Structure of Cytochrome P450:
Amino acid sequence: MSTPHFDSYFSYLTQVVKFPGFLAALVTIFVVNRIWVFLHGLRSVHHLPGYRPPFHPMGLPAVLFPTTWWNTSLDVHWARRSSLYTDNETISIVPTLIGEPTIWTSNLNVARQVASGGNRTAFFKPTWSARAFLLWGLNLFAAEGEVWRKHRRVMGPAFSNELYRLVWRQTLKTYHEMIATEKWEEKGTVDIPVIQNLTFKLALQVLGTCAFGFPLSWDEPPRTASGSLSIQEVMHSVADTHMLRIIAPKWVLRLPFQKIQQSNVAYESMASFMNEQVAGRKVEIQDNNSKDAFTLLVKANEQEESKYKLSDDELVGIFYCPQRPPIIYHISWRQIGNIFVMLFAGHETTANALAATLGFLAINQDAQDEVVEQINEVVGHDRDPEFEDYQNLNKVLAAFFEALRFFPSGHILIREASEDTILEIPNPRGQEGTTSMAISKGQVVIVDMVGIQYNPRYFENPTSYRPSRWHGMNNDSEDFTAFSVGPRACIGRKFATTEVTCFLTMLLRDWKVTPKLNEGESQEEWKTRVLDAKIVLTLGVRDVPLTFVKRK
Ligand code: HEM
């Protein structure tokens, strides 16, 4: 029921609102405000040329639509990879309606200044950009400053030859199990409609065994205590739905959809499975016989001097939920955030890059022949490859590096200025020297990995698949930049390259890979249909259909 006071107020309001001048004034205020904010945005990026779309490329309105003439969406750097940096390697995107201005760069020199980390940089990884990696607790990927240094010091020793040998052994085992279980030998010719189904399973198996220390096998994955899901299914579901769990409000997770319910069961199963594992692991650490990263990590932390040792507060999970302030759970699992980050940072990235490599080799038979020739020379046919062969199989790795250059999984590196600072921006190609640019505290700079990998300053004819670019390069050289550069570069690089080299060596020695064409489709059409990007959390390739034929 309305009061007289409310009625008179309401009628006054109705009259005012009816008055067209009032609406005009509102619109004018909005437009003037937007123009002021837009001009301020342009000034803050020193009028660097670039795009002036309505929304920020990572903002909700923009990601609802693909990149088109009027919108720059999350895939703008892929969709416009041939035009974004034609005139300038460093550009700005300043939204006219919603969002903050950002600077985007495809120049390595600028990338080193902002993304490489370490003591001397004035840039840091903002928490919002690493949110997807915080679900299972603070970790190396998301940490910053002194806490990051401690995590890296503790994680570093776990990434040793001891671990890589385990990765090699596990990859061999997984390959043999895959061939036997899927009955490849009996078939002779094997059609795989989506090669990612195999590469994702391989990546999970290797990470499961070598990072978590779970005893996984291709045919009989162990079950959780309840027996409802295999550990592989749990890991897959956890990895598959973690974006949903970060973005969705809590009530969504109670909806009776199969995928959501399965995700809930998977998270609970993972929690109880990890608890069981931690109890067992404590005994193993004392016995000193396990080589997986989980055990090596706990051991490394135990051995650290107290200055660098991670405290319990730094180890426990900060369960990040954007709808509520962060809640600190004092859980008993130690190192859990760092173990989980390996799953998320290492699973999709490796599996997609491996799928892309097989796709490129399928339509570049000369490149495939060159790789197989080296495998035959180094390993021959009478034995399995050994970890010691890794350095000599550089053409195998070159085929992978070149595919990863086309589809750099870690496609954008987001950084924010922690103080007012100066960026030295190299002048356009063909001109010597650099131009200094003042950057204000809070300015976001995005290193565009796609832009770098397609930059003609670094790669002659960048859209041509040429593994020979990498022949003769040391496997660990920073000349290959898709794992990032400097102290904050990917800690899992050798983990991934060891796994991939071993798997491709076994697979390509015995099986010729060709594209699985649709009826009447040419190789060129297959290439256009398949070798295109798909961006979720990382950048991957679309589903790759392949045929494998047993070599004589
Ligand atoms: C093809 C495979 C991979 C690619 C292309 C890749 C790429 C990258 C890139 C570009 C970064 C830097 C991100 C940034 O600074 O924002 C990074 C960091 C990281 N990667 Fe990888 N990665 C791969 C595989 C792996 C694997 C297998 C693991 C673990 C076993 C892993 C663990 C990590 C971690 C923990 C970081 C954070 C390092 C730090 O901040 O100190 N990655 N990766």
Observations:
- Residues 258-287 form the longest helix (30 residues).
- The radius of gyration is 26 Å.
